[in-house]
Amino acid sequence: MQITNYRLKAGISKPIRIAVVADLHNAPTDYLFSNIENNHPDMIVIAGDLVYGRELDRDKDNFIFEPEKPMLLRFPYADDFIHRIPSIAPTFFTYGNHEWLLMPADIDRIKKAGVKILHNTWMRWNEIYIGGLSSPDVTNYWVFQDEWRKAHPSDSRGNLRRSYFYWKTHEVRKNVDTSWLTEFESAIGYKILICHHPEYWSIKEPKLENHPIDLVIAGHAHGGQIRVGKRGLYASGQGWFPKYTSGIHKGDYGNMIVSRGLSNTLKIPRIFNPCEMVYVDLITS
């Protein structure tokens, strides 16, 4: 695992260190917990994909909609991490595309662990404002799941895998929910937006580089899986030779930092592309 550090001027009264956890995908976390603990962050940001939705492919149709049963119990490393990490620093979590499979019981479980969920909303924390732009795979699938259950009353428990892959195949409603962004952007102070998808910076709407946001924190691209020089080979949402797979990118108003993520979910290895833990130091001037 590579450690990457960034320093950004934020115009705040005292420095803030942010630990960025992205694309954990239920990987073992003891090493990660120790690293974060030893780096003494003031806040922790989980930028999506805590779990691994494609576990459905391994378990076939045995995944069913059970609102009363947390899916996190199927992901012991992720569940353990979410319960331990708030003991280090205040933790903020925004959904990535793999979080589509979370149940209402999971959301309750995460909140009870002390993690603040930012699902297309924002809040003030100390001197900064922090928002979370959830993946549309989550926002829209959860609506579709409810509609699926109503349309298939004989499937009263709602087969999670069947409805999800119907939704993916038919590309049903995958717009990003930006209805709350204007209010967030009008806040006076340093603004951080957790957004799992880096392609929303300039490739796809809402093209966040044009919004008055000081810092966007993203993941999702896994560094491009195979890196050729400073470029990744492929990333979901961007295609071949993607533009945003790691590093810091400057916009009209602020910056986007992209983490290469903390696991590998493909059969092919990560080549010249180690997993990455990111720390961001916001300094006074």
In brief:
This protein has 285 residues and is α/β, with parallel strands linked by helices. Helix content is 23%, strand content 24%. Helix 4 links the parallel strand 4 (91-93) and strand 5 (116-117).
What does this structure look like?
The chain is of the alpha/beta class. The chain has one domain: Purple Acid Phosphatase, chain A, domain 2 (4-Layer Sandwich), CATH 3.60.21. The protein has seven helices and 16 strands. The protein has a six-stranded mixed β-sheet with strand order 1-16-2-3-4-5, with helices on one face. Helix 5 packs across helix 6. The longest helix is centred in the middle third of the chain and has 16 residues. The two termini are 30 Å apart.
Helix content: 10-25%
Biggest beta sheet summary:
6 strands, mixed
Number of domains: 1
Radius of gyration: 18 Å
Oligomer: single chain
**Cα distance, first to last residue?**
30 Å
Number of helices: 7
Unreliable stretches, pLDDT < 50, 5 or more residues?
none
The strand order across the widest sheet is 1-16-2-3-4-5
Principal-axis shape: globular
| Helix and strand sequence | EEHEHHEHEEEHHHEEEEEEEEE
The fold-level CATH name is Purple Acid Phosphatase, chain A, domain 2
- Strand residue percentage: 15-25%
Which class of secondary structure composition applies to the elements? alpha/beta
Q: Which CATH architecture?
A: 4-Layer Sandwich
Average pLDDT for all residues: 89
CATH class value: Alpha Beta
Total count of strands:
16
